[in-house]
Write a structure and sequence with these properties.
This protein is mostly helical. The protein has helices at 3-21, 38-59, and strands spanning 26-28, 31-33.
Length: 73
C-alpha cells in the first residue's frame, strides 16, 4: 500500500466522521454509515492515521519501530 492510498482511506473516514457529526449518513463503497456508527468511524480513523504515519516515517528513513494493527472488519 502506498502513502497516497492510505491517505485516501483516511480522508474518506474523516469525511464520514464530519458528515455523521452533522446528522447525515455517509457511504463508503457499498456501506452506509450513520451517527450510530461513530465508534467504527473513529476506530478506522485511528487505524488509517497510524498507517499514514508509519508510511510517512518509512519514506523519511525512520528507523523507529512501528506498530501494525490488524483490521477485523
Amino acid at each position: 500500500m502506498t502513502k497516497t492510498e492510505a491517505q485516501e482511506h483516511l480522508d474518506a473516514w474523516l469525511a464520514a466522521d464530519l458528515a455523521t457529526s452533522k446528522g447525515q449518513s455517509y457511504s463508503i463503497g457499498n456501506r452506509s454509515l450513520s451517527r450510530v456508527d461513530t465508534t467504527e468511524i473513529r476506530n478506522n480513523i485511528t487505524y488509517w492515521q497510524r498507517v499514514v504515519n508509519s508510511l510517512t516515517a518509512t519514506a523519511a528513513g525512520s528507523t523507529q519501530p512501528t506498530v501494525r494493527l490488524a483490521s477485523w472488519s
